[in-house]
Design a protein that fits this description.
There is one protein chain. This protein is elongated. It is α+β, with helices and mostly antiparallel strands and about 130 residues long. Helix content is about 35%, strand content about 15%.
Length: about 130
């Protein structure tokens, strides 16, 4: 594993004095937070960084914007892909019985002809 000094060689300061962190350095620091027993706060203190910066970089890694190196001691959970289920046909929000529509709420049941206009069905459903 690289030493901290070797890693920080690539960090430059801008004219405003702020450090410019290369993506490779950010990724390495994020990977260190994934080691057993490591904390964001502890890693941030080691590099003299505000912990929220490290948290932002971790979010970038989750979004695929940072590619993390394979550091010894970092274990990732395996990704398991499942075969997607075929799409299902959405069922009607109202129980349909043959050529009738039933609106049921508690003990109240309203039976309507299947030809009842949709606006009327909605009006009745909202009144229940």
């Amino acid at each position: 594993m690289e030493t901290m000094n070797e890693l920080l060689v690539g960090v430059r300061r801008g004219s405003d004095g702020k450090r410019r962190w290369p993506d490779e350095v950010k990724a390495h620091i994020v990977a260190e937070t994934l080691m057993d027993g490591a904390t964001v706060k502890g890693v941030a203190e080691r590099y003299d960084i505000v912990p929220s910066h490290v948290s932002d970089w971790r979010r970038q890694a989750r979004e695929g914007k940072l590619v993390l190196p394979n550091l010894e001691g970092v274990n990732f959970a395996p990704v398991v892909l499942e075969t997607p289920l075929p799409p299902t046909v959405p069922s009607s929000p109202f129980p349909v019985c043959d050529d009738k529509i039933e609106l049921v709420k508690g003990e109240v049941t309203i039976r309507l002809a299947a030809s009842t206009p949709t606006p009327r069905i909605i009006e009745l459903a909202l009144a229940l």
